[in-house]
């Protein structure tokens, strides 16, 4: 089974008013070489369009990998507030 098939089983409840992760300073991402958040995120939450970093927090697995691998500590990451976030389903 492919990882995409497994991720499809998960359910998400997102808080559009208060996203649980965001980029602190876009200019820092411009100078970041290799952009490890893109490479290491298992859910492909981060996408660089050549000018700015898009954060698709709605599909976040809440693993925290991005905040660990960011060499500039430029990701403001918190667990989602109560009743929001990912609901893992196995099957």
What does this structure look like?
The chain is of the alpha+beta class and 91 residues long. It has a single domain (3-87), classed as Alpha-Beta Plaits (2-Layer Sandwich), CATH 3.30.70.20. It is 25% helix and 20% strand. The chain is built from four helices and six strands, in the order αββααββαββ. Strands 1-6 form a two-stranded antiparallel ribbon. Strand 3 and strand 4 (53-55) form a beta hairpin. The protein starts with a helix and ends with a strand.
How would you briefly describe this protein structure?
It contains 4 helices and 6 strands; from the N terminus they run αββααββαββ. With 91 residues, it is an alpha+beta fold. The strands form 3 sheets. A two-stranded antiparallel sheet has the order 1-6.
Count of beta strands:
6
Strand proportion: 15-25%
CATH topology value:
Alpha-Beta Plaits
Pattern of helices and strands: HEEHHEEHEE
Radius of gyration equals: 13 Å
Shape: globular
Task: From the structure above, extract its key features.
globular; 91 residues; 4 helices; alpha+beta; two-stranded antiparallel ribbon; 25% helix; Alpha-Beta Plaits; single chain
């Amino acid at each position: 089974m492919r990882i995409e098939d497994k991720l499809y089983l998960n359910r998400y409840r997102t808080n559009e008013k208060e996203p649980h992760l965001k980029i602190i300073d876009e200019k820092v991402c411009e100078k970041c070489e290799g952009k490890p958040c893109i490479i290491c995120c298992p859910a492909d939450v981060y996408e660089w369009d050549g000018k700015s970093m898009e954060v698709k927090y709605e599909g976040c697995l809440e693993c925290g990998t991005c905040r660990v691998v960011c060499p500039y500590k430029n990701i403001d990451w918190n667990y989602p507030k109560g009743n929001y976030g990912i609901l893992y389903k196995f099957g």
